[in-house]
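The data layer described in this paper is built around a simple, fixed record for each protein. Such a record has a labelled line for the sequence and another for the backbone structure tokens. For reference, a complete record is included directly beneath this paragraph.
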Amino acid sequence: MAFRLRTAQGKLKIEHSILDDLRPVLERLVASEEIRSIIPGVIRPVRDAKGTVKIRITVPVQNGWKAIALANGARQELFVSTTLSQPELEKLFAAAIAAER
């Protein structure tokens, strides 16, 4: 049984559910020209995911970066397809999160 990717705004691929507080941040991120796509991954409950959304880049992947988002008492993997460097992407994450407040 194959899962077909559903697409929001053409760039946010939705295979899994997305953490509630994280969704608006991701929607702002995909509005950026430099982001080709974001694929949210597995959600796991964690104790240290309270308060505002946090996104941390973990490792480079073939076409961009893997990141971990913390929100709503859980962590979610994010696969971000982009040509941006790690510092550039971190700035974009910070701006998208700051726009939430």
In short: Helices lie at 22-30, 86-98. The CA atoms of residues 12 and 51 lie 24 Å apart. The first strand starts at residue 6 and ends at 8.
